[in-house]
Amino acid sequence: MADQLKPVRWVLAKVLGAAFVLWAVATLIFFGIRMIPGDPAEAILGGPGSQASPEALEQVRRDYGLDQPLLAQYAAQLGRLIRGDLGDSYSLRMPVADLIANQLPGTLLLSALSLLVAWLLALGLAGWSTLNGRAAGVVASGLEIAAAAVPHFWLASVLILLFSNSLGWLPPVNTGSADGLILPVVTLALPLAGFLGQVMRESMLAAMSSPFALSARARGEGESGVLFRHALRHAALPGIALSGWAFGNLLSGAVVVESIFARPGLGRTLLNAVTLRDIPLVTGVALVSALAYVLVMAASDVAERAADPRLRTA
Amino acid sequence: MNSNNEAVLRLENLNVAFNGEPAVRGVSLEIPAGECLALVGESGSGKSVTARSLIGLAGTGAKVSADRLELSGRNLATLSQRAWRHVRGRRIGFILQDALVSLDPLRTIGREIDDALRLGSEYSRRDRARRVLSLLEDVGLDNPAQRAGQRSGELSGGMRQRALIASAIALDPELVIADEPTTALDATVQAQILDLLAGLRERGSAMLLISHDLAVVESVADRVAVMTDGRIVESGPAAQVLGSPSHDYTRKLLRAVPADHARGTRLSASPAPAGQAAAHVSGQAAAAGVSGASEAPAGPAAVRQRPLPVRVPAGRPPAGTPVLQAAGLTKSFRTPDKKPFTAVDGVSFELSAGETLGLVGESGSGKTTAARLVLGLAEPDGGEVRLFGRPWSGLPERERRSRRTLIGAVYQDPLSSFDPRLTVGQLLADALSGGRSLNAKAHAADTARLLDLVGLPARFTARGPRTLSGGQRQRVAIARALAPKPKIVICDEPASALDVSVQAQILDLLDDLQREFGLSYLFISHDLGVVRHMSDRVAVMQRGRIVEQGPAEQLFASPQHAYTRQLLAAAVHPPRT
Amino acid sequence: MSIFSSRRSHRDPALAARFPGLRGLEIAAAAAALFLVFAACFPTLLAPFDPLAINPADAFQAPSAAHWFGTDESGRDIYSRVVHGARPSLLIGAAATAIGLGLALLLGTAAGLGGRWLDFGIGRILEVLFALPGLLLALVFIAIAGPGITTSVVAVGLSTAPGYARIIRGQIAQVRSSPMVEAAVVLGRSPARVLGRHILPNALAPVFVLGTLGLGQAVVWASSLSFLGLGAPPPAAEWGAMLAAGRTYLGTAWWMTLFPGLAIVLAAACSTVLGRALQRRAVSR
């Protein structure tokens, strides 16, 4: 009976946790805006210096009930959010919900592809260096550190210089075709592969020197057999555990990469919204990103347990 | 050696070195079919490196050479790596210690055993599956079909070890090498695994058993080779080597086994003049590997003549007065899956001034929880601990603190109980000053006397505990426990992690100190021999309860409770001396 | 006599992990870090030109003997600007790291030492901060507080804080339940003394390592914000801002992008290599 209740309780706890996070993000932004000195209507419409028209300001005051007491405004805002109404973007004059629905798939596709490529690069490098001795380990370590140190925006520029401007192989900006995806994905994947590679390689090396690997060798297993049948799984474990974090890293990187490659997506939308201080849009993107992140974290939790039986019995 | 042509393994003049440091020097072995040769030695003696060299897996950077390495007449010394893989598993089975880490925790034991079959035979997948089940049955696992689908983490220590053995013998190898196959196991399980190994030999395999434990060796081995410092110093039939040893080192090892030595007799080197003792040790070239010359035990006579670092108060409680009473102690925990678990269940005992009460039991029996209750590190759910007749458990820590100096503790792993940032001198200064000072210089005299008391030179004050050997660390831990002049010391497996000769020195030291200061010990161990040697009275714990307690000799001579008898029977017989 | 080597049979990766032959790399990183710090302190000793002096006649010159890294759209010497950029870029990174670590120390120690409820509450706060990973939290903060150097420093500090806080909290919890602390209790030490002598010094020892490791990431994030036009405004000689200016001329003047970016990579890689070296030394002590 208790065993049957467990997943239900787990799901319930996760849903409550996610609801709390969303509430907290909305609340922080709401009160943050109102703590900034100046006219909140102006703050919502791009901050001081945005030169919003008096009509627009009046519109905002009415829409947001800014003449009401603060708590009443807050309650109204929460009420709208609970109904799924994210408000209108003043800069794009569109419902925030529609905007995000248009932009989300592009970012998700970019993140998923980048995560996959980063995984393959990290595991490949780890496996290669493990089978090729200490010098290869030093090379791999150096590559990982360098890759992890590269800022997305610079890597993107260098890749464009190399593959678009010099070689002319790939388009420098989004053209809608598939080869326009290659440079953005590589830009996001390389630094992430540097981070993942460090932990995966360490875990793989630990597995290769573990007593169970010695047992396998004593059974007649060769080095590549030990690697593929034993060490690879152990190397994947920290990668799975870190996949939630990796997704966050990609969301954060998407802000830069999408704007450099002029790709539609959540990151670029957020950057534009921040630059124009379009608060309803910022709030909407923040809420959706937070929700996505919480969901991915929960999924990576499940995946981690599925991959490592020790977490289930313990 | 009787060198007939039946020898399965013939090894002559094996030398192994790591980075120019020799680890094995000129070892020769020969094992006929159906015989078990035990290679005995302490850590660092080179026994495991020898075993691994026999399957071509000596380790990174190992320089290996041998005049002859033959398996059933076939030369192995010139094999390529590829050819070695056909020997491993198929013709030589290798069993490592502690199957929890020697089986891949992410794979089922069925697949681990299947690997051995897949790599070394032409069986079809279906035949292999059938063979895996029959192997699991052979090694005595119930319900093989279910077990084959489980991973090492889901099995008990004994079941795991059986699965590991199954994977090593899957292809009926001519030679089975078992490296400390029972070290991590409780006594009763250990006995079962040894039976299983003995059975393998009867199937006609030759066996090389690597062990530090003379008792284990005696119950299985036909012949014994004693190894120290990379060399075999003595070898011959088991009865002869263990019964009438001819080499000094073998004698020292045998004397160090506590089981057959009455309470109060010495286990380590006899109290020889210091110079002679040092010569003996250097002659063995730091036999224990970890122990430098400074590990040389200070003779007890020397200890007694030295002034005490702290004057023992004249009001030493007369022998026989109870100093510590535990009445009806109960403590429950919740397991990770929220099931209540009673670790200690109605435990009562009394410790008198100057006596040692041994608390013996297998892992999970509640010994350590009992110790924590006595030390006031955990509060009992029921029952009470009284110290010198006054309440101890259930008090707020603030009220207990002033009386904490009465009761000290020595743990199994001294290193983790030291602050890693402090030197030995600072650790002792802290203990001497009641925590007010870390200034080793201000307490230099007392610190030096404390170190002297535990047989360490005063220059150790500047060392970090990490740079010390296991035995030296335990000596520092004992010195620290004694600094506040306790009347009672709780010793929780104080020598279990140490080599037998170092264990002997630590046990002797504890004995000397007890007589010197009239200390009372609560001595906790899983090792019946150690408990028997150290204790005046013994309490046997099983599943949180004390099933029997009484004077040590009486309890061991005529055990009343079935569990005590089972424990005694399982404890493999100690070697004769 | 035959010799059979087991060179390929069984490597000892534990050894490789601890001593990966990276000593040379570590020495190089230390030298490069010293150079960067020197550039930050005494830029005029290394830079031949005024980083802000406009000289339109020299605009868009490719790297040459006179201008090692070329010149930008206003004829300013890029090498001089990269050298002068060390101070603002590193200071911004250091300030952000200090803010992040300071906040994390507060939250982490409170969670690790306080009762169950405090731990729970701070855990929830961290969860919220984690839900806006990396630049997202920084961007939301900037959206509220407005762009500029100060806000971008605080924003980066804020986004690094939850990661540090979680590590510090874990460290304290681990030391708190260690046998070392139990041994101190058995010796009769008061909670204050156990805390001051054993728990805090041991739990907070890695903070310096964390700071060294995190400094590079903070420099990268802060320069990202400048690049996006939300941090240091051009024409300041700050690496991120220089890259933002170079973006416009990517097709014609690649050197405007390459060299400031290399400076960022160098700083970040140095901080990782040195941080890991410190970490290894702390572990093996």
Automatic annotation (TrEMBL), chain B:
GO MF annotation list: ATP binding
Keyword Protein transport: no
SUPFAM superfamilies according to UniProt: P-loop containing nucleoside triphosphate hydrolases
Membrane-protein topology: Peripheral membrane protein
Domain of life: Bacteria
Localisation per UniProt entry: Cell membrane
Domain ABC transporter, chain residue ranges per copy: 9-254, 324-568
Alphabetical UniProt keywords: ATP-binding, Cell membrane, Membrane, Nucleotide-binding, Transport
Keyword Membrane set for record: yes
Predominant cellular place of this UniProt entry's protein: membrane
NCBIfam families for this protein: PRK10419.1, PRK11308.1
Family: Belongs to the ABC transporter superfamily.
Protein name: ABC transporter ATP-binding protein
Protein species of origin: Arthrobacter mangrovi
From TrEMBL, chain C:
Annotated Gene3D superfamilies: MetI-like
Pfam family, one: BPD_transp_1
Topology term for the membrane: Multi-pass membrane protein
Membrane-spanning segments: 21-46, 90-113, 125-145, 151-168, 203-232, 252-275
Keywords on record: Cell membrane, Membrane, Transmembrane, Transmembrane helix, Transport
InterPro entries in the record: BP-dependent_transpt_permease (IPR050366), MetI-like (IPR000515), MetI-like_sf (IPR035906)
Location relative to the cell: Cell membrane
Broad class of where this protein is predominantly found: membrane
Keyword Cell cycle attributed: no
Residue intervals of the ABC transmembrane type-1 domain: 86-275
Taxonomy, superkingdom: Bacteria
Family: Belongs to the binding-protein-dependent transport system permease family.
Protein name per the record: ABC transporter permease
Organism: Arthrobacter mangrovi
